[in-house]
Structures are given as C-alpha cells and as structure tokens.
Amino acid sequence: MEPVRPDFVPDPSLSRTEMEALQRSVAADAEFADRLPFDPATVSQTTGPADTTGSAQSTLTGERPMTTAHEPPVVAGIDQSFINDTAISAIVALQDGEVIERTHAVTELSVPYIPGLLSFREGEAIVEAFATLDCEPDLACFDGSGRIHFRQAGLATHMGVVFDLPAIGIAKNLLCGEPRESVDDRAEGWRTPIESTDAVDCPSGTTIGYAYQSRQYDSGNRYINPLYVSPGHRVSAETAVDLVAAFGGGYKLPEPTRLADSYADEVKSSVVDD
DNA sequence: GCGACAG
DNA sequence: ATCTTGTCGC
What we know:
- The protein is of the alpha+beta class.
- It contains five helices and nine strands; from the N terminus they run H-E-E-E-H-E-H-E-E-E-E-E-H-H.
- It has a nine-stranded mixed beta sheet with strand order 3-2-1-4-5-9-8-7-6, sandwiched between helices.
- It is globular.
- Residues 46-62 have low confidence and may be disordered.
- Mg(2+) binds at residues 79, 143.
- Residues 39-70 are annotated as: Disordered.
- DNA repair enzyme involved in the repair of deaminated bases. Selectively cleaves double-stranded DNA at the second phosphodiester bond 3' to a deoxyinosine leaving behind the intact lesion on the nicked DNA.
C-alpha cells in the first residue's frame, strides 16, 4: 500500500526543527479515539476463530460509516533489524491467528537514533516495506511509541497517519510520561495508565497510554518489565491496550510484533552471508 | 546548567 | 537497536 499523506512521509534530510514541526502537524491529524473498521470486542483472546454469531459487529457508531473490514480483521506487525547503517523493515500480516503474508524492505540509514525522532530514522524503510505489501491491514502494530511522545507523534502515530491506518505503539521502554502506579513486580494482566507530564504537548495528567504486564514469571525472584502501549492513530489508549491483551500469544510481545521481530532477524541473517 | 530520553 | 556466555527454571 501507498501513503495517503505523502507530505507527511518522514524525510531524514530535514533539519531537527523541521522534523519537530512535521511531528506537530502529524499530531494535529492523529486521532486518539476509536475509529476502527472492525469491532475490537470481537477480537478473540485465544487468537482462535472469531465469533460467527453475526450479532457481534457493532452498529452503534452512527457518524462515519464504518469501513468494511476483513472478517476476521487483518492485523500487521512491523519491526526493524539493523546491520550497521542498513535497515531491514519486516511486516507480517495475520488473520485469524494465521500468517497470510510476510514482506520486507532493505534501505540505507542516513540519520542516527535520536530520542523523539525515531520515525525519521526508521520511517523510510517502513514506507518501502508497506509499498511491497499486497494485503490491506485493518490494524498495524509498531515497535515503539505512539502518543507516548513529546509531541504526541511517535513512530506508530507518524506511520498510522501517513497511511491513515489504525495503529498501535508497543514499546519495551518508556520514552516520557509517568505511570500512575509503580510498575515494579506486577502480575500478568496488570495495567496502569501512563499520564502526560509537562514534557508532553497536551494537558498534564492526560492518559497517553498504558503500562501493561503482558507476561510474568509464576514464581522466583526474577521479574519481567511491562510493555508500554499507546495509541498510534484511530484507536484510544484503552482499546489499544485491550487489543494487545487480546492478542496474547504467551510471550512478552504480542504475536504480530513478535513474528515481525523474528522475521526481521531472519532476513538479516540471510543478508549477512551474501 | 541539570536531567531524561522509543529503537 | 546490537554484541554474546552462562544460567535459571519447567
């Protein structure tokens, strides 16, 4: 698929000031409320077959006509791996728990990693990978932040707006914002809101995402850190974390992202020998 | 000036 | 992100 907003595609040659200005424009167009082509409540927690009762599809939203999605919805996981200054962006598309497509792109990096400007480093590889994707996802899961970002325009938000695709950001570390409660040693399934501080471009105290304990050891003295889930585009913070919880999979990372992660490493290995 | 910072 | 052995637990 191709960008719906070519003018928002992250350009690495921009100055830092221009990059930040673009992020503010992206944030202005981002939607942090549910506008999905499917009913999030119908996403099975077991990644198994969807309900066929026929009455599950909500018809309550009477404003914008809910675009018809695939049944069940197609969910894409996107992740990158690197070899020096070469980036590999991998996309794995799932439907009903089954992989229906895998694709990737290899590009050269031109800017270093700078906290807050990640989309300008990895964005081009991602856009090129999407250009080779045949199916049309109903939801995209990115590795990194969405609204949990200084200008509310993290990687997931930026890419979501560029493709006008419902998107979720799934990060392993917190970029900014503050957990309402301590995230230490939590049980599996636990969650707490991430509230904005004055470092974020929105009223302080706004829920910009959730810390979510996707997995935890049953016993012992070792602990797993939570994931930081935030809205990318067209999803609320609550729905974003509900969806990640519903994807399950038994690992720390939700299945779409986990498969994209391993596929990116797989491609990396195959690129190493040539 | 100090602290903080996704991948 | 990436580089990597050993180690803990089921």
